[in-house]
Amino acid sequence: FLGCSNTQAPQIEKTPASNKNINNQLLKASKLGDIKQIKNLINNGADINYQNDDKAYALYSFVVDGYQKNRPNESLDLVKWMIEEKKADFHKLGYNGYSLIHVSKNLKLTQYLVELGLKIDSLTPNNATTLMGSLATRLDTRYEDTTLQKYLIEHCVDMEQKASFGTKKFSALDFAKKFNRSKAYQLINTSIENPPKQCEGKGILAPKISFYNTPETFDSEVVNISFKLEAQGFGIGDIVILVNGVEISDNKNRALKIKRGSLKVKTFNIKLQNGLNEIRAFAYDSSNIVKSEVVIHDVVAEYKVDREPKLYAIAIGIDQFEKESLNLRYAEADASLFGTTLFKRARGIFSEVKIIYLKKSDETTKEMILQNLKSLQDISANDFFVFYSATHGTMVDGKYYMITSNISSTEDAYIQKNAISEDELREVFKAIPTANKLLLFDTCYSGSINEKISKKLAESTVEKLNLTSMTAANSVQTALEGFADGHGIFTYVLSDALDGDADFNNDGIIQSMELVNYTNKMVPKEAKRFNHIQTPAYFQSGQVFNISKLRSHKGSVNMNPHYFKPDEVKKLVTYMDKNELNAFNKTLESNKVKTKLKVEKIKKEAAKIEAAKAAATLKLADKKFNFGRHDFVFNDNSIFLNIKDSIKKHFNFTDSKGRHLIVFDFYSKEPAQRVVTALDTQKVSDIYMADRGDWYRVTLQTKSRQGYEHITTKD
Length: 715
Fold this sequence. Notes:
The chain is α+β, with helices and mostly antiparallel strands. The protein is about 30% helix and about 20% strand. The protein contains 20 helices and 30 strands. It has a 6-stranded mixed beta sheet with strand order 12-11-13-17-18-20, with helices on both faces. A 5-stranded mixed beta sheet has the order 4-10-9-6-7, covered by helices on one side. It is globular, with a radius of gyration of 31 Å. The relative contact order is 0.07.
């Protein structure tokens, strides 16, 4: 992974194939499993989604024929590269309507396709199963691996399903016999006689998850959210909860492993941003492969905030490593440039900007970097977090590793143990409770961050994300160091972006989306000046937030993030690409209005729900009781749906548990519903508060009924 210092990316050989047949050349290379040629052709203009008359396309041809001609990890990495970087259409059907999961012969490939959303139990147009497809190849060796077949059987693929081929029908057993799969034949035959217990009945493996007694409104930042879980198939494994698109960290959501058919309610402690919050959740089966349906609940949090949000940033720049051949020249300078620019431009909109610089050798070890990240686990959900890293990066067995100063060897096993892995980064990032995260990696071979860390940290299908990550180069490129004034291209462009060059709509504010768009455009242009190929990779969220302010901007800045659906994000990016300023601004403004209306609607619905709950509870209350010399009567009809703020100011009772008044019953024996619009405390002779569990029933007796306004309602 060496070569970040003034390095030149290897020049791509120009394929001799003409534009007319380059797509067919790609199909041929895919069938032969020629990984180098596949990449060469795609990078030189071949259409990755081109499909010929036989319904063959590059990804499909590689999975069917080329996959087995390379080492499994190399083949899987190519599939991921084609899908995640080159946007190959993995839903496209091939010959006879077979999908990729039906022609997969490799367990890890099938598991990856399941993660992408392809269904294990899906059928082809002629009713073939994935189990049949896994068997439809004669073995090149005598060794027969049945791990894929075991996986499919354990995940309840119908073993007795028959597919039609002309006038004949074939089962999975027929396929195993036809292709001389003796071990698979025995496995299927035994499994038909003794099917897995989790596959009894309908064989639905995905667990069920639903919100349990979750309010629509909250008056605090830290809240409890409960879910009802029902285990099916293999039971329940991990539970994933996303708040505003970002996965939260909670030790309670790890692998419940509860058995099929059992029910469980789990409560999680999370932080909410002030305003609108989207909570999403889903659960896996105990194998952590099959995912439940995603449940969504929009809530509004309204609590007192006595300050503008703070910005916390960690800026890492490593020049000195234990292995001296790794030493860099400009990483520390890059971290300083980014940090000082961010501080200078952000302090005008945040109540505090705290930059933690990690540059010295004893500050940039794996232990110290993780320790500093963990120190931010208690910040507010309303605060912002920026992570910047200028160092080496490398890939080992398909995973990204960030190289720290303590690294003294470049051996793969040593790197895996002593560098910071993508998994460790993901876990520590999601433990930081704010959804406002900006992650920036100026490291060689760092592009996989976007597909492997950011994608897991905030699922790409989530409608309202609030995570933006960028890397200096994609997963197969080097990042050019020592550009202008001794800085890397990526960092230098970022600095210009924060300084104001990224301000697309000229409002004096740099938003996360503007920063991404500008950097993505300018880095390749600047790299080209040095005969270098460098393309940033990024993951843009569905929530756009402000990050810096220009000197020219006057007045206050609204720091509420904006939420966008995926199609709206695409529109905004398109508007910036096409320089359509009016359409961009119109979309931003429209989003603000929609968000405000949604908040008002949620609050209104919440009031009705709480009133209905109170009404149901009050029906069980005593009808009459004595307090001193006064008689008090509970009137079942006197539920006041709207409690005015003026009343709350007079009577803001709480008990030792912090419970507040929620129902006022103005003393009267008349069976009519009322809303009290005014109360003069001087005219109240007695107040009685009856403890009803989660709320208080309050009855007021007055000296005189004159001077009170009552509104009689029919509802």
